[in-house]
Design goal:
This protein is mostly helical and 299 residues long. It is built from 13 helices and two strands, in the order αααβααααααααααβ. It has one domain (2-29, 87-284): Growth Hormone, Chain: A (Up-down Bundle).
Length: 299
């Protein structure tokens, strides 16, 4: 939520690209961190583990020092008032009373299930539902990171406006459906077929992950009133929180059901994409609310 607010305040209409760069760097960091952890595990000494923890602590210190340098950006919409000016008479909108936004957040919970696929679904399905080698699981996670680092920023330009972001929900639906079908087909053959289908599934779900991120960055801000973006983005963050709880259950149910379960899994999320595409249409037809005015009080 804080990243979205900062991107909105600093980058304005370029916030989607800003978020894409931020996510690319984060994925590169995860990859580097994974390699460092693997090296520490390989060495297996207390010195290696201590160095790993010290490096992690230093990274947070570096981030803190960079944050200290950040300031309030110039804004033509900022209004400066004094203590003698009357307080605003209008109260900010409350997200809990905004049925459209709440319905949008509910659909977001389903759309971010790609996270559970990579953390739970793929590893378990490789072991229990296919003839693919067990070592394929970490390789697909590496593939996911590499694709995000390479493609997230280029793909962001396709969702730079609210209209473009909404349009991306259609290919997003297709990638979710293809991912589910590829997972289902991976159980139908030997090792080569299973490996190929699972790789195709990983690519499809990674594409879905990147498109979803692009769409979500724009719509979550564009659908929020200018005077209550913090509260609205806080509610939007609940989608990820709920997904972390129900996501493992959803992919476990797909695994237990077998190939048909994965087909239904992908199709259900694809239908949810279409529902969201229709849900936000009327709200986005109005004027953009994504760049809020800021009032600064001087005492």
């Amino acid at each position: 939520m804080l990243t979205k607010l900062y991107a909105t305040r600093v980058s304005g209409p370029d916030r989607v690209r800003y978020q894409a760069v931020n996510r690319t760097v984060a994925n590169a960091g995860w990859a580097v961190g994974g390699l460092a952890a693997a090296a520490a595990l390989g060495l297996g000494t207390s010195t290696a583990y201590q160095a790993l923890l010290a490096g992690d602590a230093l990274s947070f210190l570096g981030a803190a020092l960079l944050t200290v340098r950040c300031g309030e950006p110039p804004s033509p919409t900022r209004t400066v008032v004094t203590s003698k000016d009357p307080l605003p008479t209008t109260k900010p909108a409350k997200p809990w009373r905004d049925r459209t936004y709440l319905a949008y957040v509910a659909t977001e919970t389903a759309l971010c299930l790609h996270d559970a696929v990579f953390k739970v679904g793929l590893p378990l399905w490789i072991v229990h539902g296919s003839n693919a080698p067990h070592g394929l699981a970490p390789l697909l996670l590496v593939l996911n990171n590499v694709l995000v680092v390479a493609l997230q920023v280029p793909l962001a330009r396709f969702g730079a406006t609210t209209t473009a972001a909404r349009a991306l929900l259609l290919p997003l639906a297709a990638f979710f459906a293809l991912g589910g079908v590829a997972m289902a087909l991976s159980s139908a053959g030997g090792t080569p077929i299973a490996t190929g289908c699972l790789t195709a599934a990983a690519v499809s779900f990674t594409m879905a992950e990147m498109l979803y991120a692009t769409v979500s960055w724009e719509l979550s801000v564009a659908l929020a009133p200018a005077t209550a973006q913090g509260a609205y983005l806080g509610v939007h963050g609940l989608a990820q929180s709920v997904q972390r709880s129900v996501g493992p259950l959803a992919v476990t149910a797909a695994i237990a059901t077998g190939p048909a379960g994965w087909t239904v899994f992908g199709a259900t999320i694809a239908v949810t994409c279409l529902i969201q595409h229709r849900l936000v249409r009327d709200r986005l037809a109005g004027p953009s609310l994504s760049v809020p005015p800021v009032t600064v009080s001087e005492h």
